[in-house]
Write a structure and sequence with these properties.
Keywords: Endonuclease, Hydrolase, Nuclease, RNA-binding, tRNA processing. Its EC number is 3.1.26.5. Belongs to the RnpA family. It is an enzyme of class 3 (hydrolase). By secondary structure, the protein is an alpha/beta fold. The chain has a single domain (2-104), classed as 2-Layer Sandwich (Ribosomal Protein S5, domain 2), CATH 3.30.230.10. Helices cover 37% and strands 20% of the residues. The protein has helices at 7-16, 50-67, 90-102, 110-113, and strands at residues 2-3, 18-21, 25-31, 38-42, 75-81. A 5-stranded mixed β-sheet has the order 1-4-5-3-2, sandwiched between helices. The two termini are 23 Å apart.
Length: 122
């Protein structure tokens, strides 16, 4: 499993990939031609100070590590933390990561999505 590192890869995945909105995260997925899974994590500054943002990233990274063998290969995946991830238990974050592999999507209404942007904070 590789890490998405540059802004161009993040932006391409967010702009061209499919979106799954889960309870604690938003997931953007885009097929890649390398046959490997590449994952990037984004936590915007609206989520708190650097200590809080890094805590959220560590928890998401660990949940991904525990479920990496089940995540799809041949895809670039960008995981964007939602405000709900700040107070979420680790088990809830793990559950959302597992839902990536299952392909389950939580539908949201237009009213709920009105305050979100599609740029993933880039």
């Amino acid at each position: 499993m590789e890490t998405l590192r540059n802004c161009r890869d993040f932006r391409r995945t967010v702009e061209n990939g499919g979106r799954e909105i889960l309870e604690t995260i938003i997931v953007y997925r885009l097929p890649n031609h390398s046959g490997t899974k590449r994952i990037g994590i984004s936590v915007t500054k609206r989520m708190g100070n650097s200590v809080e943002r890094n805590r959220i990233k560590r928890r998401i990274r660990e949940a991904i590590r525990l479920n990496a063998s089940f995540l799809p290969t041949g895809e670039d995946i960008v995981v964007v933390a939602r405000p709900e991830s700040r107070a979420a238990t680790f088990e809830r974050i793990v559950r959302d990561i597992r839902r990536i592999r299952e392909g389950k999507v939580v539908e949201i209404t237009d009213k709920q999505s009105a305050g979100t942007t599609n740029d993933g904070g880039y």
